[in-house]
Amino acid sequence: MTDLVTERLILRPWDASDVKAVVEGSRRPSWAADFPAEGDGVIAGLVESNPAWLSPFGHRLIIERATSEVVGSLGLFWPPSDGQVEIGYGVVPSRQGRGYASEATAALTEFALSLDDVDTVHAGVEPSNPASARVLEKAGFRQYDNTEELISYRRTVS
Does pTM top 0.90 for this prediction? Predict the structure, then answer.
Protein backbone atom coordinates (compact mmCIF):
# COMPACT_ATOMS: atom_id res chain seq x y z
CA MET A 1 0.00 0.00 0.00
CA THR A 2 1.23 3.40 -0.92
CA ASP A 3 1.63 6.28 1.51
CA LEU A 4 0.37 9.67 0.41
CA VAL A 5 2.90 12.42 1.10
CA THR A 6 2.10 16.12 1.37
CA GLU A 7 4.26 19.10 2.24
CA ARG A 8 4.00 18.44 5.99
CA LEU A 9 2.32 15.06 6.36
CA ILE A 10 2.48 11.38 5.52
CA LEU A 11 -0.83 9.55 5.20
CA ARG A 12 -0.08 5.90 5.91
CA PRO A 13 -2.73 3.17 5.75
CA TRP A 14 -3.55 1.62 9.13
CA ASP A 15 -2.25 -1.91 9.54
CA ALA A 16 -3.47 -4.66 11.86
CA SER A 17 -0.88 -3.78 14.53
CA ASP A 18 -2.03 -0.12 14.58
CA VAL A 19 -5.62 -1.24 15.07
CA LYS A 20 -4.67 -3.67 17.83
CA ALA A 21 -2.59 -1.07 19.69
CA VAL A 22 -5.40 1.50 19.66
CA VAL A 23 -8.10 -1.01 20.62
CA GLU A 24 -5.97 -2.40 23.47
CA GLY A 25 -4.83 1.03 24.63
CA SER A 26 -1.14 0.25 24.08
CA ARG A 27 1.02 3.37 23.70
CA ARG A 28 3.49 3.60 20.85
CA PRO A 29 6.50 5.91 20.95
CA SER A 30 5.63 7.25 17.49
CA TRP A 31 2.28 8.62 18.67
CA ALA A 32 1.70 12.21 19.73
CA ALA A 33 1.01 12.37 23.47
CA ASP A 34 -2.72 12.89 22.85
CA PHE A 35 -3.14 10.21 20.16
CA PRO A 36 -5.44 8.36 19.87
CA ALA A 37 -8.34 10.74 20.26
CA GLU A 38 -11.84 9.38 20.87
CA GLY A 39 -12.63 9.23 17.14
CA ASP A 40 -9.48 7.22 16.44
CA GLY A 41 -10.62 4.64 18.97
CA VAL A 42 -14.00 4.42 17.26
CA ILE A 43 -12.35 3.93 13.86
CA ALA A 44 -9.97 1.28 15.23
CA GLY A 45 -12.93 -0.62 16.66
CA LEU A 46 -14.76 -0.47 13.34
CA VAL A 47 -11.69 -1.58 11.40
CA GLU A 48 -11.15 -4.43 13.85
CA SER A 49 -14.68 -5.61 13.02
CA ASN A 50 -14.18 -5.00 9.29
CA PRO A 51 -10.60 -6.06 8.41
CA ALA A 52 -11.30 -5.46 4.72
CA TRP A 53 -11.11 -1.76 5.56
CA LEU A 54 -7.33 -2.23 5.90
CA SER A 55 -6.77 -1.27 2.29
CA PRO A 56 -5.32 1.61 0.30
CA PHE A 57 -8.89 2.88 0.00
CA GLY A 58 -9.70 2.80 3.70
CA HIS A 59 -8.35 4.58 6.73
CA ARG A 60 -4.98 6.26 7.16
CA LEU A 61 -2.91 7.62 10.00
CA ILE A 62 -1.81 11.24 9.75
CA ILE A 63 1.91 11.47 10.47
CA GLU A 64 3.60 14.81 11.02
CA ARG A 65 6.74 14.75 8.86
CA ALA A 66 8.71 17.12 11.12
CA THR A 67 8.39 14.82 14.15
CA SER A 68 7.34 11.45 12.63
CA GLU A 69 4.51 11.38 15.19
CA VAL A 70 0.99 10.14 14.49
CA VAL A 71 -1.25 13.17 15.01
CA GLY A 72 -4.61 11.95 13.76
CA SER A 73 -6.39 9.82 11.24
CA LEU A 74 -8.71 10.10 8.31
CA GLY A 75 -10.37 7.76 5.93
CA LEU A 76 -12.68 6.91 3.12
CA PHE A 77 -15.73 4.83 3.89
CA TRP A 78 -15.26 2.29 1.11
CA PRO A 79 -16.58 0.99 -1.28
CA PRO A 80 -18.13 3.79 -3.31
CA SER A 81 -21.88 3.93 -3.81
CA ASP A 82 -22.97 5.33 -7.18
CA GLY A 83 -19.51 6.86 -7.60
CA GLN A 84 -19.57 8.52 -4.18
CA VAL A 85 -17.44 7.91 -1.12
CA GLU A 86 -17.59 9.57 2.28
CA ILE A 87 -14.54 11.00 4.04
CA GLY A 88 -13.95 11.52 7.75
CA TYR A 89 -10.98 13.07 9.58
CA GLY A 90 -9.62 14.09 12.93
CA VAL A 91 -6.45 15.66 14.30
CA VAL A 92 -5.45 15.50 17.97
CA PRO A 93 -5.95 18.72 19.98
CA SER A 94 -2.20 19.39 20.30
CA ARG A 95 -1.94 19.74 16.49
CA GLN A 96 -5.22 21.45 15.69
CA GLY A 97 -5.17 24.90 14.13
CA ARG A 98 -2.16 24.14 11.91
CA GLY A 99 -4.10 23.21 8.76
CA TYR A 100 -3.20 19.53 9.00
CA ALA A 101 -6.79 18.32 8.67
CA SER A 102 -7.34 20.37 5.49
CA GLU A 103 -4.00 19.28 4.02
CA ALA A 104 -4.70 15.61 4.72
CA THR A 105 -8.32 15.83 3.55
CA ALA A 106 -7.31 17.49 0.27
CA ALA A 107 -4.65 14.83 -0.41
CA LEU A 108 -6.90 11.85 0.33
CA THR A 109 -9.72 13.43 -1.69
CA GLU A 110 -7.44 13.92 -4.70
CA PHE A 111 -6.37 10.27 -4.39
CA ALA A 112 -10.01 9.11 -4.24
CA LEU A 113 -11.06 11.23 -7.20
CA SER A 114 -8.23 9.75 -9.29
CA LEU A 115 -9.78 6.28 -8.99
CA ASP A 116 -12.08 4.90 -11.67
CA ASP A 117 -14.97 4.14 -9.30
CA VAL A 118 -15.13 7.59 -7.65
CA ASP A 119 -16.47 10.88 -8.99
CA THR A 120 -17.58 12.50 -5.71
CA VAL A 121 -16.19 12.67 -2.17
CA HIS A 122 -18.64 13.93 0.43
CA ALA A 123 -18.80 14.69 4.14
CA GLY A 124 -21.34 15.92 6.64
CA VAL A 125 -20.72 18.42 9.43
CA GLU A 126 -22.92 19.25 12.39
CA PRO A 127 -23.76 22.98 12.47
CA SER A 128 -22.17 23.17 15.93
CA ASN A 129 -18.76 22.31 14.41
CA PRO A 130 -17.71 25.28 12.22
CA ALA A 131 -14.03 24.27 12.42
CA SER A 132 -14.82 21.05 10.57
CA ALA A 133 -16.71 23.01 7.92
CA ARG A 134 -13.62 25.21 7.42
CA VAL A 135 -11.47 22.08 7.00
CA LEU A 136 -13.66 20.96 4.11
CA GLU A 137 -13.86 24.40 2.52
CA LYS A 138 -10.05 24.75 2.64
CA ALA A 139 -9.78 21.29 1.05
CA GLY A 140 -11.88 22.44 -1.90
CA PHE A 141 -15.29 21.10 -0.85
CA ARG A 142 -18.49 23.03 -1.51
CA GLN A 143 -21.68 23.01 0.53
CA TYR A 144 -24.61 21.42 -1.31
CA ASP A 145 -27.22 20.87 1.40
CA ASN A 146 -28.05 22.27 4.82
CA THR A 147 -30.51 21.00 7.42
CA GLU A 148 -30.82 21.71 11.13
CA GLU A 149 -28.87 18.51 11.85
CA LEU A 150 -26.25 18.43 9.10
CA ILE A 151 -24.40 20.58 6.59
CA SER A 152 -23.39 18.49 3.58
CA TYR A 153 -20.27 19.12 1.52
CA ARG A 154 -18.83 17.50 -1.58
CA ARG A 155 -15.98 17.70 -4.01
CA THR A 156 -16.29 16.25 -7.48
CA VAL A 157 -14.04 15.37 -10.39
CA SER A 158 -13.25 18.59 -12.24
Answer: yes
